[in-house]
Amino acid sequence: MPTTVAPIPDRSPEDIIALRRRHLNPTLSMSYKEPIKMVRGEGAYLYDQDGNAYLDMVNNVCHVGHCHPAVVAAGQSQMAQLNTNTRYLHDNIVEYAKRLSATFPSELSVVFLTNSGTEANDLALRIAKTYTLANDIIVVDHAYHGNSPTMIELSPYKFDGKGGRGRPAHIQVAEIPDDYRGRFRKDDPQAGEHYAQDLQRAIAAIHARGEKPAAFYCESVLGCGGQVVLPTGYLPAAYAHARAAGAVCIADEVQVGFGRAGDNFWAFEAQGVIPDIVTMGKPIGNGHPMGAVVTRPEIAQTFITGMEYFNTFAGNPVSCAIGLAVLDVIQQEHLQEQAKQVGDFLLQRLRDLKQRHSLIGDVRGMGLFIGVELVKDHISLEPATTEANAVIEFLKAHRILLSTDGPYDNVLKLKPPMVFSMDNAKEFLLRLDQGLQQV
After folding, report:
1. Do the Cβ atoms of 172 and 153 come closer than 8 Å?
2. Is 133 helix (H, G, I), strand (E, B) or coil?
3. Neighbours of 1 (CB within 10 A)
4. DSSP assignment letter at 147
5. Angle, nearest 10°, between helix axes 317-332 and 91-101?
């Protein structure tokens, strides 16, 4: 007789919460004061157990839309044929490496596949240390690069946060290049170069330990730091300082890659630089666990030490079929162009709202990666944290999903699926206007 799969009970939200508390990781949080039970996703929407549609403006993982039929079909088809490891030959992995590397400058042509952005950043660290024969790392303040032990050590967002153990000795933290509330503001045309000077202090601190810097990690747009767009000139100057000290430059594109930036497929391109290593995850598989590292051939060659990098699941035929489908959808549905068009519209209309609502202190972003910072005072820049979270709950009550981020938890972060439309944007702007009036 054929095997039958036991049905999963249709539980109430209250029962699920109780079971989570009994059986799941106790540090795992839930969104909103009253968590929502989601049962289905399609395009830019999630649907609860009662069939209510919620406009999803925070999920940059389901990059080409929840349950995109082409991506689902690619995974189902390949799963029904073969799924095995990369020690066997298969067309999918080489086709994916070829297609992915074609989206980068020609200098970046060697692909390592992983299962997540955390794994990608972990592997990038190993590669950087092998190439430079150094150990110390420079990161940007409030950065988050992953959940593994080594990435927690690289992430001020974690090691300086609740439960953190503080900065490890081999990590140096560079000043966050925030031209809204930092030392150098938007009225300084050289703010980027001025912020980059802080890398020299970090490098000096490494040399004072008798060590050398192996890498400078920087997100191409800062996520947990508050959706901060790097000031013009920051990466060119920062990369120059890092490379002069012998470090490699790693661009973390886990949140902002694959066309989300609008003008460019990769957000680092907006700064006119070519990193030595690029890491990616989240949107790469549209929700399927997948990540990647892309680097220069000369760096990849030094990783041949006799210790193989092998990953049981990374680069398997199913993952690569899904990754290829994501690239196809981005191209064929012109989603990068849509991110540019809708993102520019959102930024302009949000700046119009800023003129009417004193709570809005700053609007910033690229494409469909946008931050709206709320403040109580435009001189002191006192964070409006309570108000920001009240806006989030107001929007949730009107079936729009959003969240906050930044060092003060006062930045509304907009990073919807790339199928987010002009009509979706108008709906959000209407509700945000109402929410700001109410709080």
Report:
1. no
2. coil
3. 3
4. S
5. 40
Q: Evaluate whether 143 touches 161 at the Cβ level (below 8 Å).
A: no
Sign of dihedral through CA atoms 310, 216, 99, 328? positive
* Alpha-carbon separation of residue 396 from 48, 281, 369, 393, 432 (angstroms): 12, 27, 19, 5, 11
Q: How much of the chain, in percent, has pLDDT values that exceed 90?
A: 97
Under a CB-based contact definition with an 8 Å cutoff, are residues 263 and 270 in contact? yes
- Work out the number of other CB atoms within 10 angstroms of the CB of residue 36: 18
Q: What is the DSSP string of 262-323?
A: SS-SSGGGGGT---SEEEE-GGGGTTSS-EEEEE-HHHHHHT-SS-----SSTT-HHHHHHH
Phi, then psi, of 309 in degrees rounded to 5: -95, 110
Rounded distance, CA 125 to CA 109, Å?
Answer: 18
More confident residue, 6 or 269: 269
Average pLDDT over residues 345-364: 98
**245 close to 203: Cβ distance less than 8 angstroms:** yes
* CA 422 – CA 65 distance, rounded (Å): 15
Distance from C-alpha of 134 to C-alpha of 226, rounded to nearest angstrom: 31
Check whether 352 has a pLDDT greater than 90.
Answer: yes
- Per DSSP, the three-state class of 412 is strand
- What is the DSSP annotation of 54-72? EEE-S--SSTT-BT-HHHH
Please tell me the distance from the alpha carbon of residue 92 to that of residue 70, in angstroms, as a whole number: 16
- Asked if 398 and 409 touch (Cβ cutoff 8 Å), the reply is no
Closest Cα partner for 239 from 278, 211, 207, 210? 278
Length of the chain: 439
The residue among 280, 249, 305, 253 whose CA lies nearest residue 111 is: 280
Main-chain dihedrals φ then ψ at residue 108, nearest 5 degrees: -105, 100
In 3D space, the residue among 213, 331, 233 whose CA is nearest the CA of residue 276 turns out to be: 213
Q: Please name the residue that has the structure tokens 């930045």.
A: 411
Q: pLDDT, tens digit, for every residue of 263-286?
A: 999 999 999 999 999 999 999 999
CA-to-CA distance for 148 and 211, rounded, in angstroms?
Answer: 24
Partnered with residue 292 across adjacent β-strands are 113, 280
SS3 call for 186: coil
* 259/420 Cα distance (integer angstroms): 13
